[in-house]
Design brief:
Blueprint lengths: L2 E5 L3 H13 L3 E5 L2 H10 L4 E5 L7 H11 L5 E5 L4 H10 L3 E4 L4 H12 L8 E4 L2 E4 L4 E4 L2 E3 L3 H13 L6 H9 L6 H15 L8 E4 L3 E4 L10
Helix pairs in contact: 2-3, 3-4, 6-7, 6-8
Length: 229
């Protein structure tokens, strides 16, 4: 069962939306301002966030931007009366995944929520795994506060691994991420994984990059269990 958060200060609209979504089988929490929304998001795990732009204390754009800066990749559907292109671009720049202009049909809301629930957002600006941080907007990587230098290929491999963490990524998927459809020989991936492991694990006591037998490679925070290193 999917769990949603609706941040909307129009209480009549919010009540209508919550009742409709719950009748369709969703669990839907509601808050009327952005700060309350931020607090609930920190305490719970949601599949999709429905954010009104015009809210007191912290508006939808500000809330979405904070989440992306923190590395939260929950999909965001922005609800707003603003239908100008500049307003939509501002929303996408803040990290929203989709945009629905009021008034809207309930069936369209339902379709968009279901579509977003199948994926994580690609709009986040920071990825983390333990003490390893990857800042996508600044194109920087650091571990335990220490800046790391990566080649462009190592960067692409690390981004793919961090987006999937702690789940494993197959060799085929990693090669797609690094080289697209034009795969080099398999030894190239081995060399780049070696270099990536040397960069992110070499100077540190706890390894993060693990070889998963029969599955590929995975980034796992310390304490998630030993694997084939």
């Amino acid at each position: 069962m999917l769990k949603l958060l609706l941040a909307e200060d129009d209480l009549d609209l919010a009540q209508t939306l919550v009742q409709y979504l719950e009748l369709e089988g969703f669990i839907c929490d509601h808050v009327s301002n952005g700060i309350a929304g931020l607090n609930l998001i920190e305490q719970n795990s949601y599949d999709v966030l429905l954010l009104d732009i015009n809210m007191p204390r912290l508006d939808g754009l500000g809330l979405c931007q904070r989440l992306r800066e923190q590395g939260n990749d929950t999909p965001v559907l922005m609800l707003t009366a603003r239908d100008q292109l500049d307003d939509k671009l501002q929303g996408f720049n803040a990290g929203t995944d989709d945009y629905l202009v009021k008034p809207f049909e309930m069936e369209e809301l339902l379709a968009r929520v279901r579509a977003l629930s199948y994926r994580r957002s690609g709009q986040i600006q920071k990825l983390t795994c333990g003490d390893l941080q990857m800042n996508l907007s600044e194109k920087s990587v650091q571990r335990n506060g220490q800046a790391l230098k990566l080649s462009p290929t190592s960067w692409r491999l690390l981004e793919r691994l961090m987006r999937a963490s702690p789940s494993p990524v197959s060799r085929e998927e990693l090669m797609d991420s690094a080289w697209g459809d034009d795969h080099p020989d398999s030894n190239s991936l081995k060399v780049h994984i070696y270099n990536l492991r040397k960069a992110i694990d070499g100077p540190f006591a706890e390894p993060l990059l693990h070889t998963i037998s029969g599955a590929g490679f995975a980034l796992k925070p310390p304490g998630m269990g030993k694997t084939n290193a």
